[in-house]
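Bumping with the actual sequence this time:
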Amino acid sequence: MYDVIIIGSGSAGLNASLYAARAGLKTLIIEKEPITGGQIALSSIVENWLGEKSISGSKLVEKFTEHVSSFGVEIKQFTEVISVELEGEVKKIKTSSEEFQSKVIVIATGSREKKLGISGEEEFKGKGVSYCALCDAGFFKGKEVAIIGGGNTALEESEYLSKFASKIYIIHRRNELKAEKIILEKAKKNKNLEFILNTTVSEITGNKQVEKIKLKNVETGKESFLDVSGVFVFVGMIPNSELFQNIKKDEHGYIISDEYMQTNVPGVFVAGDVRKQPINQLITAAADGAIAAVSAYKYLSEK
């Protein structure tokens, strides 16, 4: 029996565990991946974490994990939750190998990459189609690639990718990029980048590997082909909330909570990118985790 079980080990889950452990609560993190950190662990560079001018996502996560482990937080990695029973005072978490019980649950499952849903995307996944520059940039040394997306992630990953690729086409469906001004200005100074706006990608083609993408100008309707060896997709995220059937969500699947991170089910809190909120950032996810843990402590104290 745990006081708090946290599902997910991104910045939200790790910070929740830190505050819970410091409050003297017996705390467990369950993480389905073999590494902790969530999406940020795959980021090539982080420049918006206070106190770290520039640091890799993996190094930052390493610091997070060492910190929470020093307070006795138990972490079970490579353990996927297959079902949950959240009603009642004792919550049950079932994995493929064992069952855990807790008085409080914090959902910190984060989100995953949204796919384009176009012809060739699944066929060439791992054969030129990627969702992680840090993971796959090395395969495209001296080659031309396309990045689909116009937000912060797309441009931040383009900087790392430009260390390997000879040329990068940034393709965005609108006439303006969504990235923050400082990130956009930095990208525009990168000579390896070429911006193709008002354009969508309708097809990915090739033989055994990606060779071409089919473009369509959204204003004129004109179609053309672009020769590239790789396609990196950064077009948004989907919340990992499907497991939690009785938890109230919005129309996009994001979990709804109050300002204390309490969901509609007593004793079940939520934190991070899986929660409905104005922005999804590393710092806001960590703040969610702190609030959820403090709220969990108050909930248990009242019990």
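The tokens above came from a reply further down the thread. The mean pLDDT is 95.
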